[in-house]
Amino acid sequence: MPQAQIDVSEIHWLMDMFRTVDVGLVVLNCDYRIQVWNGFMENHSGLTPSQVRDRYLFDLFSEIDEDWLRRKCDPVILLKNRAFTIWEQRPYIFKFRNYRPITGSADYMYQNCTIFPITSNSGEVTHLCFIIYDVTDIAVSRLELEQMNTRLQQLSKIDYLTKLYNRGHWEENLIQEFKRLQRYSHYSTLLMCDIDHFKQVNDTYGHTAGDLMIQKIADAIRLNLRETDIAGRYGGEEYGVLLVDTTLEQATHFAERLRHSIEQMVVMYNQMPLKVTISLGLAEFNSTMKQHVDWIEAADKALYESKVSGRNQLSCYQP
């Protein structure tokens, strides 16, 4: 076969590969005018090579941050080194819609990009070549995994029934606050409360009614919380609320407001109106407490005092 035919054959398959390869190939001159635009770019942009040739890149694609891209490309031109961008740093260079059915949750194509210099015979950089990789599958999987891990982390802290913090996470917060109060002269107060005659609710109406009652009390606690307060389900029908930077006197107002709101509450179960009350105990941190459990025991003692004194009332721990 004559050499000319071999050369033409090689050019043909090179051009065919250039058109059909599943990555974007873009060549710019040093003035950022488009010289080469392959089939991948045409398919995703809707612009043919003839439509983009010699057009200024940033006029055609206004979503590209010109200052950022020039900073990325300057070292490529000056040092003749490659540069890379990844989707974690910037989701895309060219904002193409995502048409993949498997990764349909993504609105646009996530991209990695390699930028390398093209030099003349004299070694001068005359053009920049961009290789655009569609990494939407990888990006979506990674983001979904991160979201799932975040969700699992949140679920590990939350009580399933009440949606308040579970005992473990709530107690971790209590320990941190206890250590803070030992170092600094601040005030914080611990509230412990539980549902009065809860066993009677379970025995009379069943555990489903009991669970509903636990949820409604938790909702009432949540409605009364301030932004800095930390509430949790301590166990069974008992709750704990850490009132940060709150004196005993201030905490009394919170506790009475909570007690009154629950006293006025009516819970509908199977079209039956149920009423319930809570007993509460407050304990302000003091320096004689050596461990956080001392603080819990103090609030529990105050709660016990409310129980034996007739329930539906608030008692405060006196050291």
TrEMBL record:
GO terms for molecular function: diguanylate cyclase activity. Transmembrane segments: none annotated. GO terms for cellular component: plasma membrane. Its EC number is 2.7.7.65. Gene3D superfamilies: 3.30.70.270, PAS domain. GO terms for biological process: cell adhesion involved in single-species biofilm formation; negative regulation of bacterial-type flagellum-dependent cell motility. Its cofactor is Mg(2+). It catalyses: 2 GTP = 3',3'-c-di-GMP + 2 diphosphate. Residues 186-319 form the GGDEF domain. It comes from the Bacteria. PROSITE patterns: GGDEF. This is diguanylate cyclase. It comes from Rheinheimera salexigens.
